[in-house]
Amino acid sequence: MFNMRQWSYRYIGSGSSRNVFDLGNGYVIKVAKNRAGIAQNMSEYRISSLDSSDLFAEVIEVSEYFNTLIMRKADKIRDFRYILDYFKVGSYEELFRLREFQNIQYKYNLLLSDLIRRSSWGIINGRPTIIDYGFTREVVEKYYRIG
Known about the structure:
The chain has 147 residues and is α+β, with helices and mostly antiparallel strands. The chain has 7 helices and 8 strands, in the order αβββαβββααααββα. It has a 5-stranded antiparallel sheet with strand order 1-2-3-5-4, covered by helices on one side. A 3-stranded antiparallel sheet has the order 6-7-8. A hairpin with a 4-residue loop joins strand 2 and strand 3. The model has no long low-confidence stretch (mean pLDDT 92).
């Protein structure tokens, strides 16, 4: 954590509730900015622990209170077409109708609207991999619903 505070890790990006840094060793660290970020880290840890589909980047470790999460680093996807071609489909709709995507959507309460974002994906070992999957229905309902 000290090195992160001193900015010795390369900043990769951020969302509304987490910052991501490259650890320089094939892994990234996701640092929660708030309670929603902690909840997203918890969701990713849970999903990674339970899932055997190879669709998700593996979570290696989390801190005691889920403030930080270490995950395998993926290469950037420049065009969503790469994902569609890999799964031999022509559209988002076809992709998310595939059995493996239907299974993970219902099993983990994932929001397909979040998985359509190119930034939610990366490439690990030549395979499209979901790298940002903590934005589940439970997280949205608890931290992002207004009213």
